[in-house]
Amino acid sequence: MDQESPIEALDAIARSVDEAFAAARDDNDLRQVTARFTGRDGSLTKIMKRIPELPGPERKPFGQRVNEVKGLVERAQSNAAERLRSEARARELSRPALDITLPGRRPRIGRIHPCMRTMHEIIDVFTSLGFDVAEGPEVELAENNFDRLGFPPDHPAMDMHDSFFLPSRRPGDRVLLRTHTSTVQVREMLSHPPPVQAIMPGAVFRRDDDATHSPMFFQLEGLMVDEGITLSNLRGALEAFLTRLFGAGVKTRFRASYFPFVEPGAEMDVECLICGGRDPHCRVCKGTGWLEILGCGMVHPVVFESVGYDPERYRGFAFGMGIDRLTMLRYGINDIRHLFENDVRFLGSL
Ligand code: PHE
User: E-assigned strands of 160-226?
Assistant: First the structure.
């Protein structure tokens, strides 16, 4: 069979243009179809190479015809592009509208840990009574944690403060995680002459772990030193504080107790708000009906001597309370470990 002449081939190309572009479904199709005509291997590009097959006078009109067909391709291409754009717009408009009545998903908002909330409230009470807030390091020298507070070496009172000792960098230093924030009382007195009126909030550490003891817990201690301070100043400050925290009706008791750094020493108990004193097996008050919440007393002259205060001239009171214990009481939590497991479902419910 004779080969199709260049003129017949060009006519066939021209006839195929509209149908080829009508088949394009997207921009990618459109690029491929265009390339099939005018790309490097496109039919219109290749047909130019066949011009020498034509007799001389036919060559120029053939070239013009090729250019016309190229124009045809260009128009078909831009029509197809326009058609694709309007099809896309129609699809967009027929899609279901955004439903703005659907309930949104609220991001969960964090909140302050109940222990910190209690601590801030207690700080507010005491600062309104004129106390400053003092802080100190959690890693301490045994001098500040025990010796300057009048703990004699190897005294059994240190058993109550079963301690975490740490390796020390300087030979001879006895370094530990502080067992109470009384260390900050020592630091305050070493660095300021009397009068002193401050509270010391912070984390403390003891080797204890059960329903009412955690190896890390929070304390807040207080110290007031001046001429003429008496036990009734102490009771007044503590009663003002407890009324503010628990309300006027709460039952408390004051009983004699021993701490090496106070004389006389006392402990203050609050009625067990978990069982109300009615459950002999209550895990929190151990069936006693009372919860010890703080230790207190008049600062021992030995302590004044060890920090360079004149024990003849000055008197002072000190107290120390467990923030976690108070938090358990306020929220009726029966196991201190709940406070440190950091289960947001539990903490968020308080
Ligand atoms: N530091 C004592 C403790 O942690 C509490 C306390 C402070 C007792 C001040 C009396 C006076 O056990």
Answer: 165-166, 175-177, 196-205, 216-226
